[in-house]
Amino acid sequence: MRNDPNQKDGDIDGLDIVDRLPKYFHPDQGAAIPRELIGAKLIRIGTPRDQRKFEGGGLVIDYIPAKSRKVKRIILSFSELEMWIQSVATLSA
Fold first, then answer.
1. Alpha helices of 5-68 — where are they, by DSSP H?
2. Distance CA 19, CA 4 (A)
3. Are 55 and 78 in contact (CB under 8 A)?
4. 2 DSSP 8-state letter
5. Distance from C-alpha of 88 to C-alpha of 65, rounded to nearest angstrom
6. Which of 44, 63, 64, 77 is the most exposed place for a label (fewest CB within 10 A)?
7. Low-confidence ranges of the chain (pLDDT < 70)
């Protein structure tokens, strides 16, 4: 629910996190979160200027994996039923 006025900070604090991308009808079959995102330094997070390129508008995350100096980019696409990895790439310097 978006901007639920009844939601308390404690609801967020105690939230159980599943390390898979959401898939409404088959939650255990969603794609695994890329391990290199865990502990990575987030550089930038947003959406592409042309949101028509990716379903759901796309969520773009630029990050540096732990113990690395190379910036990587992951693009997530999504619908009302699931989210998936559209692309992962190493960015040129």
1. 9-13
2. 24
3. yes
4. T
5. 12
6. 44
7. 1-10, 93
